[in-house]
Design a protein that fits this description.
Blueprint: E1 21-23, H1 34-44, E2 57-66, E3 85-94, E4 109-117, E5 120-127, H2 140-147, H3 158-166, H4 172-178, E6 193-194, E7 199-202, E8 208-217, H5 226-235, H6 239-249, E9 255-264, E10 290-299, H7 304-309, E11 322-323, H8 328-345, E12 407-409, H9 418-429, H10 432-446, H11 451-464, H12 466-478
Antiparallel strand pairs: 1-12, 2-3, 2-10, 3-4, 4-5, 6-8, 7-8, 7-11, 8-9, 9-10
Helix pairs in contact: 1-8, 2-3, 3-11, 4-9, 9-11, 10-12, 11-12
C-alpha cells in the first residue's frame, strides 16, 4: 500500500498525529503546538451554524444550594457557606447527532451548567459518563469525524467508528459504557453528570487539590433498552426535550446531588492511575465522594434560541478557588470551546444575556461583530496607565503547576494493559442481563465492520475480560 504523507495546511509533513506537545509526559499542552491549534481551529469551523458537537439539546434555569462545608479545599465564593444559593443555567445534549436527530440515540449526553457566581461565571462542562473515548486533544477531530457522516453517501458508518476505536484501545472503557443501557438514558432527568476531567481546587492557604465532580440524579437512574430507544426515535424523537420541559412546567423540578472526589496535589505523583487520564476513573475506595450541594432545575426558558441555542459553555470559564489540571484533553478544550463559540456566535458571545455574568465586566475588549452594548464608551482600553483603568488582582494568582520534562509529543505514561483494566472491571460489575444487553448492542454495530477491524477490536475486549471478548466473538460468528 502506497504511503500518503499527512501534512499541515501549508504542506509541511506531520511528524506525530497521536500526541500533543507537552512539558513532560504528564505536563500541560504547550502553546507552541501549532499543529494542534491548526487542527482544532479548522475542526471548530467545519460546520455552520449549529454546534459541531452537542448540537441537539435542551436546557433550563435553576439554583445550586450548598449543603456541606468544603472551604478547607477551596476558597471559591460559591461554596463559602452552607445554604448559599447561586442561580444556574443547565444544558443537556446528545453529542454526535445534528439538531434534528433523535434524543434517544446511542450517544453520550452532554451535561453543562453555568453558575452565575459573585466572582464571575463558572462553567462545569461534562457528560453523563465519567470517562471519554480518547485522552489527547490531537485525536479529537478524528474521533468526531467517525461519529459524523461519510463524504460520499452522507450516511453514518459503523465501520468508520470501529476502525478508529480498534486503533485506539484507550476507548474501551467508554465503549463498554456507551453500549450498555447507560448509552440510552431515559431522558435527561434520570442520568448522572460528571466533570470527567480532573480540575483543581485552591484554598485560602493557596494549597491545591485535584478534584472530580459527580452529579447524582435524585430522580433515580433509568435507562432505555435498545428496542425502546429505537421505537421512541421514530415516534417521539424529542422525547428527552419534552420530558424535561413538561416536568418543570408541572412543578416536578429535577435535582442532582453534587459530589466531589478530592486528591491532595502531592498524591498524584505516585498514584497507581494517572489522575489526569480522562479514560480512567478514580476508585471511590481511594477517593470517596464528598457531598457539596444540590442542583435544582426549576424554570423553563421563555425562548429556546435566545437561552438554549445561544448558551455558550467552556471549561475556561473559571473563578478564584477553582482551577485546571494537566489533563491533556481538558487543555485542548480550553482552546477549542471558546474558539467554537467565537465562530458560532461571534467574538462578543459572552455579552449575550444568557452568558452575561451577574458581576460587572471590565476589560479592554472593543468592537467585533454584533457589538450590541455601549462598546466601552469613551473609557481607555489599555493598561498600565496614569489614569483610572481596570487593573490586575495579583492576590488571585494560583500556585504554580509542578512541571518537568522536555517538550515533546508524549503518550500518557501508563502501563500497556491499563486501558483494559477498568473496562473489564465495569463489565464484571454488570448483572448477567446487563452484560447480555451490552454484548447484543455491540454485536449489532460491530457486525457492520470489516472482519479485520472486528478481529482487532475483539482482541481488546478479550484483554479486558476473556468472557467479554469470547461472547462477542461467538455472537459475531453466529451472525454470519
Amino acid at each position: 500500500m502506497k504511503k500518503i504523507d499527512l501534512t499541515t495546511a501549508n504542506g509541511r509533513k506531520v511528524d506525530n498525529n497521536q500526541n500533543s506537545l507537552t512539558a513532560g509526559s504528564r505536563g500541560p499542552v504547550l502553546m507552541q503546538d501549532v499543529y494542534l491549534q491548526e487542527k482544532l481551529a479548522h475542526f471548530d469551523r467545519e460546520e455552520i451554524p449549529e454546534r459541531i458537537v452537542h448540537a441537539k439539546g435542551a436546557g433550563a434555569h435553576g439554583t445550586f444550594t450548598v449543603t456541606n462545608d468544603i472551604t478547607q479545599y477551596t476558597k471559591a465564593a460559591i461554596f463559602s457557606e452552607v445554604g448559599k444559593q447561586t442561580r444556574t443555567f443547565t444544558r443537556f445534549s446528545t453529542v454526535g447527532g445534528e439538531r434534528g436527530s433523535a434524543d434517544t440515540a446511542r450517544d453520550p449526553r452532554g451535561f453543562a451548567t453555568k453558575f452565575y457566581t459573585a466572582e464571575g461565571n463558572w462553567d462545569l462542562v461534562g457528560n453523563n459518563t465519567p470517562v471519554f473515548f480518547i485522552r489527547d486533544p490531537l485525536k479529537f477531530p478524528d474521533f468526531i469525524h467517525t461519529q459524523k457522516r461519510m463524504p460520499d453517501s452522507n450516511l453514518k458508518s459503523d465501520n468508520m467508528m470501529w476502525d478508529f476505536w480498534s486503533k485506539s484501545p484507550e476507548s474501551l472503557h467508554q465503549i463498554t459504557t456507551l453500549f450498555s443501557n447507560r448509552g440510552t438514558p431515559d431522558g435527561y432527568r434520570h442520568m448522572n453528570g460528571y466533570s470527567s476531567h480532573t480540575y483543581s481546587f485552591i484554598n485560602a492557604n493557596n494549597e491545591r487539590f485535584w478534584v472530580k465532580f459527580h452529579l447524582k440524579t435524585m430522580q433515580g437512574i433509568k435507562n432505555l433498552s435498545a428496542d425502546e430507544a429505537t421505537k421512541l426515535a421514530g415516534t417521539n424523537p424529542d422525547y428527552a426535550t419534552e420530558d424535561l420541559f413538561v416536568s418543570i412546567k408541572n412543578g416536578e423540578f429535577p435535582s442532582w446531588k453534587v459530589h466531589v472526589q478530592i486528591m491532595p496535589e502531592v498524591e498524584a505523583e505516585n498514584y497507581a492511575i494517572n489522575p489526569f487520564d480522562v479514560t480512567k476513573v478514580w476508585p471511590h475506595a481511594d477517593y470517596p465522594l464528598i457531598e457539596v450541594g444540590i442542583l435544582e432545575l426549576n424554570k423553563n426558558p421563555k425562548n429556546y434560541f435566545n437561552e438554549v441555542e445561544q448558551a455558550a459553555f467552556s471549561p475556561s470559564n473559571k473563578v478564584p478557588g477553582i482551577g485546571l489540571s494537566p489533563d491533556k484533553m481538558l487543555q485542548g478544550r480550553l482552546f477549542s470551546y471558546p474558539d467554537t463559540q467565537r465562530y458560532r456566535l461571534g467574538v462578543n458571545y459572552n455579552a449575550l444575556p444568557i452568558n452575561k455574568p451577574d458581576v460587572e465586566v471590565n476589560n479592554g475588549f472593543r468592537n467585533g461583530a454584533m457589538r450590541f452594548d455601549d462598546n466601552g464608551g469613551d473609557s481607555l482600553n489599555y493598561e498600565p496607565s496614569h489614569y483610572t483603568v481596570p487593573t490586575e488582582s495579583p492576590e488571585l494568582s494560583e500556585p504554580p503547576f509542578k512541571i518537568n520534562g522536555d517538550a515533546d509529543r508524549y503518550a500518557y505514561d501508563s502501563d500497556e494493559n491499563s486501558d483494559f483494566v477498568q473496562a473489564g472491571n465495569l463489565y464484571r460489575l454488570l448483572s448477567k442481563s446487563e452484560q447480555n444487553d451490552l454484548v447484543t448492542n455491540i454485536v449489532g454495530s460491530l457486525s457492520n465492520a470489516t472482519s479485520e477491524i472486528q478481529a482487532l477490536q475483539i482482541s481488546h475486549f478479550k484483554k479486558a475480560d476473556l468472557g467479554y471478548g469470547r461472547t462477542i466473538e461467538k455472537q459475531l460468528r453466529g451472525n454470519k
